[in-house]
Amino acid sequence: MLSLKDYKNVIDLKYVPKKVLVLSDSEKSALCDELLGTLLEERNEIAAFSYPYKVKRDLIWGYMNQRLPNPVSARFLEQQDRLFWAETLENGVIDSERFDYKDGIALWQGDITRLKADCIVNAANSSLLGCFIPHHKCIDNVIHSRAGVQVRLDCSKIMGLQGESEPAGCAKITLAYNLPSKYIIHTVGPMIALKPTEEDARLLRGCYVSCLNLAKEMGLKSIAFCCISTGVFGYPNDEAAAVAVGAVKHWLMETGYDIKVIFDVFLDKDRILYEDVLKNTR
């Protein structure tokens, strides 16, 4: 599998902070019109923009989900980034520096795409190209959709160089583009058919260790994990939480690397599980 050294020169990994940007509804609507014009032209469809802003924005979301990782113009990226970054700021940025850390670990419940951290972790699929199902609510879709088309383009370059699917337990990194975090680390967790095996647990631990190793290699100082392999991948939430916390605590103790780790959960049941596991795992 490719190492960071193998692919870091085929994608841009230089983080550049973005400035505060506020757009009016009319400005956002105009940006939607231009983006839709390009997306519809790619699909050989006729543009019609008599829709309200939110309807147009949903159309952009769905079309981008279905879009193959083909090149886009600099103008398209400029307009997309203005719209997406303004929306990110409107949604509200959560600064992970303000969390309550115990032994370098914090638990937070909320939308991971709002977190300002050095990197967030995306639970990817083996193609590493994001979710192609329009408006799907999986974390892979949400992260790609809010970050921008550049993430799929970067992942396509990495996968083209690798020449084969991404195996479970490994990790790759891209810029986060229009998210508050600097980077996204993409990892593929094991998919569970009936109940997790020892091999599944090993692969899931590998996801957390690979992400932390990559963050360390990049010199990053904070990382936010989603609940890898739960949901559609079928790993039982309680067992996944135990593996996650155990892997992270062991890595921190073994390496001594100074990094803040956030376990980001979305569901109440996961928050309760992680609170219990964090309290009882040594």
UniProtKB/TrEMBL annotation:
Gene3D superfamilies per UniProt: Leucine Aminopeptidase, subunit E, domain 1 (3.40.220.10)
Keywords: Hydrolase
Stored Pfam families: Macro
All residue ranges annotated as the Macro domain in the record: 92-282
Any one Gene Ontology molecular-function term assigned to this protein's record: hydrolase activity
Residues forming coiled coils: none
Keyword Hydrolase: yes
PROSITE patterns: MACRO
InterPro entries in alphabetical order: Macro_dom, Macro_dom-like
Top-rank lineage group of the source organism: Bacteria
NCBIfam families with a match to the protein in the record: PRK04143.1
Protein name, entry field: Protein-ADP-ribose hydrolase
Organism field: Candidatus Borkfalkia excrementavium
